[in-house]
Design goal:
Blueprint: H1 6-19, E1 23-26, E2 49-51, E3 54-57, E4 62-64, E5 72-74, E6 79-80, E7 89-90, E8 95-96, E9 105-106, E10 111-113, H2 121-124, E11 125-127, E12 132-133, E13 142-143, E14 148-150, H3 158-161, E15 162-164, E16 169-170, E17 179-180, E18 185-187, H4 195-198, E19 199-201, E20 206-207, E21 216-217, E22 222-224, H5 232-235, E23 236-238, E24 243-244, E25 253-254, E26 259-261, H6 269-272, E27 273-275, E28 280-281, E29 290-291, E30 296-298, H7 306-309, E31 310-312, E32 317-318, E33 327-328, E34 333-334, E35 343-344, E36 349-350, E37 359-360, E38 365-366, E39 375-376, E40 381-383, H8 391-394, E41 395-397, E42 402-403, E43 412-413, E44 418-420, H9 428-431, E45 432-434, E46 439-440, E47 449-450, E48 455-456, E49 465-466, E50 471-472, E51 481-482, E52 487-489, H10 497-500, E53 501-503, E54 508-509, E55 518-519, E56 524-526, H11 534-537, E57 538-540, E58 545-546, E59 555-556, E60 561-563, H12 571-574, E61 575-577, E62 582-583, E63 592-593
Parallel strand pairs: 1-2
Antiparallel strand pairs: 1-3, 2-3, 4-5, 6-7, 8-9, 10-11, 12-13, 14-15, 16-17, 18-19, 20-21, 22-23, 24-25, 26-27, 28-29, 30-31, 32-33, 34-35, 36-37, 38-39, 40-41, 42-43, 44-45, 46-47, 48-49, 50-51, 52-53, 54-55, 56-57, 58-59, 60-61, 62-63
Length: 596
């Protein structure tokens, strides 16, 4: 409020009381003039100047001048007046006006007042800084709170100008946009512009998509492979076969060798894995245990290799599947290497415990199936069937003249020249006796037979031999006897020399052991009958003598004859009469003539 002197104030007050602040006074009022006296006051004559007792209204934007009554003065910038206004009124909040303005102008929304005292909007109003907003007629711009963002083109109140950041986003104050927490992180504070302050890393084994307010965990039985995704199928991978995991795992654990997986959805090894059963084996990460095949035994359970885990049973042993040891085949059974069972030995075979094969019973022995040993046929019997356990079916008695010891596959014959004396012996020397000379036996004989007359045998003979020509023998002879020289065999089948041999007839001779006697040839005479040599036995007849065959003497031709053929026994053939006139004595070979 302006201050005035007393005299001035009195006069002014009176004028203004009558015409108002924005009126002018035309005249020279005197101090003490009373406007009411003329029926004028501020309610009935507003905005007027006072001229010659008359109030004249100032135009809008002007008011009466205190010091220049009768004139109107422009309202200053930042103020305004309207018709009937007694004074210039200051512009309201966020408004501006130039000199002599009848009204104030609001700064547009999105701007704030820079200066009131200009009519130029570009000078009066300044655009809000980034991230701030204003309504119309704003003195200042307001920042959106942290955790919100300015809505593009928005004006007015905070509710319409600022939008909350979306879930998982953050912003500082005065932000025009919100930022996403990256995948693999979660929002912990939306009201900050600092990413480290706004976003926290997911815990180990957790994952999240961008703009997440929480992290998800991989379920048990899975492992995190990508934390920066919101898709479970992309973030989590099923544990490989034979592996397990608890929830929130970054890796899967393998069941140790010798165990197998029974539950993948746990982090507890004792719940996830179980030991392989007896006789089974497995490598690490196994979902099942393998079994050693029948014929093998487990030697190493902590391996995936069958060759390393299982060892073949040796020959003579066997095993079923899932075995940790091999059993020994019992007697009467046998097995090859890697056998699941032992095979029964067939009848006729046998085995001891732990045998790889069944042995055939030795000659003369028999057995039933599954036998530990073979049984011998008794002495005096022989084997006909080894594949039976019944002695009567396996063994029969030896035939006549045969023998056998225990365990004989065959019976032996006493050889020719011997006879059976004990059939229950196992050697010829004990079972058979030699036939004596003069007896014999054929093969497999129980006794020796006497040689017949005319035959003989030496000891241990298989047959009797007929006496040679000119020899004879009686029964049971060990040799034959020769007829003496000068005799011939008459009967070989006798032991009596007199009956067997006959002297040669007259004129005949023989050597020993002859069956016939030989006659001296005609022209010869017997001189020795006991020789086989003709030159010794026979002598040529002397000159002039003759003989027939088998002659013991020679005959002389009678006197008067001569020998013409000594080799005849007929005188008429041997002797020829001398011719007439001739003569001869006896035994002459020629006739003599009488002399003239």
């Amino acid at each position: 409020i302006r201050q005035y002197s007393t005299s001035e104030f009195t006069s002014t007050v009176n004028v203004h009381a009558t015409c108002g602040e924005h009126s002018s006074w035309n005249g020279s009022p005197q101090a003490g003039d009373d406007l009411k006296a003329v029926g004028l006051d501020s309610s009935t004559a507003p905005h007027k100047s006072f001229s010659s007792g008359t109030c004249v209204s100032c135009l809008a934007g002007k008011v009466g001048d205190w010091y220049n009554p009768g004139s109107c003065t422009d309202c200053a910038g930042g103020t305004y007046s309207t018709d009937g206004t007694q004074e210039c009124i200051g512009c309201g909040t966020g408004q501006f006006s130039g000199l002599g303005s009848g009204s104030c102008t609001d700064c547009a929304a999105g701007k704030h007042l820079n200066t009131k005292t200009t009519g130029d909007e570009t000078s009066a109003c300044t655009a809000c800084a980034t991230g701030k907003y204003s309504g119309t007629a704003a003195e200042i711009c307001t920042a959106c709170e942290a955790g919100k963002r300015l809505v593009e083109g928005a004006t007015g109140d905070e509710a319409s100008a600022c939008a909350d950041c979306l879930t998982g986003q953050y912003s500082g104050p005065s932000s025009t946009s919100c930022q996403d927490c990256a995948a693999g992180k979660l929002l912990t504070n939306s009201a900050t512009a600092s990413e480290p302050d706004a976003c926290g890393a997911c815990e180990s084994g957790e994952y999240s998509a961008a703009r997440s307010t929480s992290c998800e965990v991989c379920l048990a039985g899975k492992a995190l492979v990508n934390a920066e995704t919101g898709t479970e199928s992309s973030a989590c991978s099923d544990c490989d076969s034979g592996k397990y995991s608890a929830s929130s795992s970054t890796s899967c654990a393998a069941c140790a060798a010798g165990k197998m997986l029974i539950r993948s959805t746990t982090g507890d090894e004792t719940l996830a894995c179980t030991d392989c059963l007896t006789g089974q084996y497995s490598g690490s990460s196994s979902t099942s245990c393998a079994t050693c095949a029948a014929g093998k035994r487990l030697v190493e359970s902590e391996t995936s290799s069958e060759a390393a885990a299982c060892e073949e049973c040796a020959a003579g042993e066997y095993s079923g599947s899932s075995s940790t040891s091999c059993a020994t085949c019992t007697a009467g059974k046998a097995s090859a290497a890697a056998s699941a069972t032992c095979a029964d030995c067939a009848a006729g075979k046998y085995s001891s415990a732990g045998s790889s094969t069944c042995a055939t019973c030795d000659d003369g022995k028999f057995s039933s199936s599954t036998s530990e040993s073979c049984t011998s046929c008794a002495a005096g019997k022989y084997l006909i069937n080894s594949a039976t356990g019944v002695e009567s079916a396996a063994c029969i008695f030896c035939l006549t003249g045969q023998y056998s010891g225990n365990s004989s596959a065959t019976c032996a014959n006493c050889p020719a020249g011997k006879s059976l004396t004990d059939k229950d012996k196992d050697s010829e020397s004990l079972a058979c006796a030699a036939c004596s000379a003069g007896t014999y036996s054929e093969l497999a004989s129980e006794s020796c037979t006497n040689c017949a007359s005319g035959k003989y045998s030496e000891a241990i003979a298989g047959s009797c031999t007929s006496c040679a020509s000119g020899k004879y023998s009686g029964a049971m002879s060990s040799e034959c006897t020769s007829c003496a020289a000068g005799k011939r065999l008459e009967d070989s089948e006798t032991g009596d020399e007199a009956a067997a041999c006959t002297s040669c007839a007259t004129g005949k001779y023989s050597a020993i052991s002859e069956v016939t006697c030989v006659s001296c040839a005609a022209g010869k005479k017997l001189v020795d009958s006991e020789t086989g040599t003709e030159a010794i036995a026979c002598q040529s007849c002397a000159s002039g003598k003759y003989s027939g065959s088998a002659s013991e003497s020679c005959t002389s031709c009678a006197a008067g004859k001569i020998l013409t053929d000594s080799a005849t026994g007929v005188e008429s053939s041997a002797c020829t009469a001398c011719l007439t006139g001739q003569y001869s004595g006896s035994s002459s070979t020629s006739c003599s003539s009488c002399a003239a």
